[in-house]
Amino acid sequence: MSDSSSSESNAKRRRPWASYLVGSIALLLVGGASYAGYKLYSQSDTSQQAHSRPPTSVTVASAQRQTWTTELTGVGTLTAVQGTELTSELAGKVVAIDFESGARVEQGELLVQLDTTSEVAQLESLEPQLRKAKSDQERATQLIEGNAISREAYDEAIAEVDRLQAAIDKQRAIIDRKKIVAPFAGTLGIRKTNLGQYVSPGDAVVNLQQIEPIFVDFDLPERNSGVVDLGIAVRVSTSAYPDARFIGNVSAITPLIQETTRSFTVRAELPNQERKLKPGMFADVVVELPQQRDVVTIPQTAIAVNAYGSSVFVLQEAEQGSEQTLAKRTFVRTGERRGLDIEIIEGVEAGQRVVTSGQLKLSNESPVTISQRDVSEGVVAEPTKP
Known about the structure:
Distance between the termini: 86 Å
Structural class: alpha+beta
């Protein structure tokens, strides 16, 4: 009897735990079903809210199919065709300055004259001596034929002429070297000397740059060395003129690949009649290769970027029985950027319309009205009625 009573007592103690377990499982099932129902209702309600909200005013543009040339990009520096710092070869006082800072000068044009008073005086004293020495030489020639003078006297007469001629040539050279002239045609910089100033050999006078045309030197990766040839067109832009594009052609290619960077240097020549481009400017360079490819493009303003990638809002025409036009978020894969456009590799087809402004107010499948001329189609799009 005692064993039977003990078994019944143990069974009674275990039954509450089993009841608790069954109850907990039941609560979990009920809670899960309630949460699933809530999520379904919430999503349905959010979708209904998106479609019931007032349409958002946006501007749009159509995706275009274009033909783009294959391009290589690089950065470079503008370089003068010729450039030098003009200096004085000899010491002397500046007696004339015949140029203005920033002026355009021709080759051989006189820029600065140093004082040559002493050299001119010496030259003027040597010239009469040379004339007399030449007369003595002629007389000595006649006398030597008649054996009236010795060969030594005759040789001295000839040597005197040569000595005086050399002295005169030296003075004339000094006088010429005290004229600082433009070695080539170009544009002058800012004057660095003053009238009456005493200059020493090597003192800077003015900078001269030949910038019509002008060079741009830039580097490209070695993998492009097989596709860049002389004469290929290049397009250059600078921060000084962000809206301008300067067109030129490749004029030289270095045969050396730099070991440290695995790149090679290319030089292009650019017309520069207006002299807007200056040596030392930083330049963005685009090399236009002959190869072409078809691309789909949209305005860059249509692209939105977040942690998940790039996306656009594509217009979906109103379904039958509905008067609303919806904007659907579509993720895209982008390519090159050129001007105001960006290449779309995947996600948008040519002819589809994308939102170009007003995206911040949109969510997926938001109703929209179009408030701007669709430039690509050449017509004014009428606002869609809500």
